[in-house]
Amino acid sequence: MQPQVQDPLPMLARGVGVTDDEAADAPWHAALAGRPDPQADPVVNAQASALRDALRRREVLLEMQAPKADEALLQQVQFRLRREGLTGRYPAAALATRWPMWGLAATVVLGVAVYLATMTQHTPPDAATDVLRGGAGSALELRVADPQARLVSLQAALQAAGATPRVTPLPDGRIRVEVAATPAVLDELARQRLEPQVVDGQMTLLLVPTAPAGPERRP
Amino acid sequence: MTDEEILRAICAGGRPREAAVVALYRGHAQPLLRFFVHQGLGPDDARDLLQDTVVKIVRGAASFDGKGAARAWIWQVARHALLDFVEKRSRLAAREAGLTDEQWSVLAETTPSHPATDGAQGVDDCVAAGLEAFAREMPERAYALTLQMKGLSVAEIAEQLGRSPGAAKEFLSQCRKKIQPFIAHCMALLRA
């Protein structure tokens, strides 16, 4: 004959040295977890069971609202880390610990590598003078002295990243640049310290002149 | 990759850090997003906060002393990120999130019962309405009860709450008391 297995929580509640709080908690929490003690107060069991059902229904609703941890969101997280300089570069300390193992030849190679890395990762001069604004909607607004000149450098960089940006001149000298958010493009824009919002795989940048273009208007 | 290994790899920097970030995301992103939504955040805010949390974990990984569980530390960072985020978003929400247990107690005692129940309304609807009100005012406590409903152990709940097992047990006990003003009146419908 099999010994009868009892839920330990209600047993604890009836045990010696158990505080009033614990005695009151145990059957309620057991019922909430789906293990009601048949010998507990029926009202306690009923309340905890009703709350359990309500929590389960709420959980289903919230689960539907919770965003999915998909690859697109992972890319955004990685982008953010690169933008903040937390990934994509090797810390000097890590190199320093290996330094004694390297010979003269390695020193030369390292020097060249560091030089190249510095050159390729340096923020372009254009980007250094950009002023970022939130922009309307999902567009990232860049206030620049010369939108046409900035467009040339931006377009070249995007094309080098394998993208074909769509360029639309707008009134008042503004220029809209739309480009697909590929990893290479995201990397390139991150190098320029730009992080446009990605909407349906597309990003929009708005080049805005710091001074209005065209003849001055008088009222 | 365990959580401890993830934090060590993050500290190492370079490619190990990049791999660790992916492992961190695979293991924790979905539970964290769910947690943030449970705390009342919309989907967009939850995504933003996930980014903030990962950044804080990467920045702060070196401060993990290895004495406690890495998973508990990660969740503690997420909870702090949530508080920072809420503080930025809403002064009122920040005030609520910063209330002490004593202040919560006063709030619960002064919260009126929810009289929108009549004979026609069932116990389930009454409890559901009470739970919604409770979750709006005390989202962390509602979340803790959800974890218990799902059958998590006190130790597992403690990790997600960023508390010791003893403190988590006490917190759950307080949750039972604090939700009473919101649902106790529903039991009258049972007797009716």
Q: How far is the N terminus from the C terminus of chain B?
A: 56 Å
Query: How much beta of chain A, percentage-wise?
Result: 5-15%
Structural class of chain A: alpha+beta
Helix run count of chain A: 9
The most extensive interface, with participating residues per chain, is:
A-B, 44 and 50 residues
Structural category of chain B: mainly alpha
Number of spatially distinct domains of chain A: 3
Number of helices of chain B: 11
Low-confidence stretches of chain B: 112-120
Overall mean confidence score, pLDDT of chain A: 75
Morphology of chain B: elongated
Whole-number radius of gyration of chain A?
Answer: 31 Å
Element string of chain A (H = helix, E = strand):
HHHHHHHEEHEEHE
Number of domains of chain B: 2
Number of strands of chain B: 0
N-C termini distance of chain A = 101 Å
Describe this structure in words.
The complex is a heterodimer of chains A (219) and B (192). Helix content of chain A is 50%, strand content 12%. Chain A starts with 7 loop residues before the first helix and ends in a 10-residue tail after the last strand. The longest helix of chain A has 24 residues, at 42-65. Chain A has helices at residues 8-14, 20-32, 42-65, 71-83, 92-98, 104-121, 125-129, 147-160, 183-191, and strands spanning 131-133, 140-144, 166-169, 175-180, 202-209. Chain B is mainly α and 192 residues long. In chain B, 77% of the residues lie in helices and 0% in strands. Chain B has eleven helices and no strands. Chain B has helices spanning 3-12, 14-38, 43-60, 70-89, 91-97, 101-110, 123-137, 139-149, 154-161, 165-183, 187-191. Residues 112-120 of chain B have low confidence and may be disordered. Classes of the chains: A alpha+beta (219), B mainly alpha (192). The interface between A and B is large, with 44 and 50 residues.
